[in-house]
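Worked problem 6 (solution included).
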Amino acid sequence: RMLRDPLLHNVRLVGALPEERVREVMAAGDILLLPSEREGIAIVLLEAMAMGVAPVAADVGGHRELATPDCGVLIPQSGNEERAYVAALISLLTDPDRRAHISANARRRIVDHFRLEQMGERMDALIRAASHLHTTAPRAAPSGDVAQRSATSVIRQARRDRNVARLWQQIDEPPFPHSGAQRLALALIRRARCTFRPLYRRLVGHDAHPIRRGVLAVRDLATRWIYGE
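Solution. The predicted structure is:
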């Protein structure tokens, strides 16, 4: 359906490509668009910058460590990211000098600060520093009570995450909902998620949004009631 849209007649979905072809395609590009909801540090962002491609990416995870203001455009999460992405793309597409400047700075930043041997040396230095601190100023071991509370908290969180995942699955795994009311509620929750998720994703821009907090609170209550944990 997307490909039938006349506005997208220049869109080409290439599918999976071999590594050599990926480099060729990226080298031919001008801009990388990476509107991720969550990332650590996206490897594709590092690769694009190394190839001299100007990045327009989500301001999530560790992207600020790579794409500083002079070598990329980072879009903060909000309720209006779509407009911000459009403005950033139009600005770069209509200003080739600025785009070339950002592209050159992006490649220079990777070459100067993120070469493989540099990252290896930095990691080695951090491990040695941590080992030195452990020897010279070790942290006190936690008490048995603290350790037990921590272990209990981790186990409860793991169970919660497992049951939240089951809440969205279409094929149940044990523990099953026991009553007819629980099974009906589970079916309604899954149907509501499929129906309203696009609207929810448009309204909720970040983790602190009140709608998100409310939805997660209802989800957690339903999970505990349905699965009894």
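Discussion: Residues 144-168 form the longest helix (25 residues).
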